[in-house]
Design goal:
This protein is mainly α and 118 residues long. Helix content is 53%, strand content 7%. A two-stranded parallel ribbon has the order 1-2. Strand 1, helix 2 and strand 2 form a beta-alpha-beta unit.
Amino acid sequence: MESLRYLPMLAKDGWLITNINPYVNIPDYPEINKVIDEINKIPHHITIDANKIATDLGSRRSANIVILGAASPYLGLEFDMLENAIEKLFSRKGPEIIKVNLEALKQGRTFAMNFINN
């Protein structure tokens, strides 16, 4: 639903990248199918099950990094810059946290690149 709220700020050629798993923070949250139907009306969109990818990697908390990876082809940044940022951001958390977040970033990007190429 947050994705839909910010659509007026999306450039005409912009891409909406969003998780299919909502963060339900209000009691009358709309049905997810209705939200996805609205997202599907947007010409440039990618919906990704970031929670599943992150959970499969062993860190559900990395779902936001999966989304970042999926958005990475559209950010105008070199991918290695994002990888370096992940390494710096999580350096105090240890090598395993860095590793899982780098993999989350890569899997999100791979998903998006496969989506673009299909």
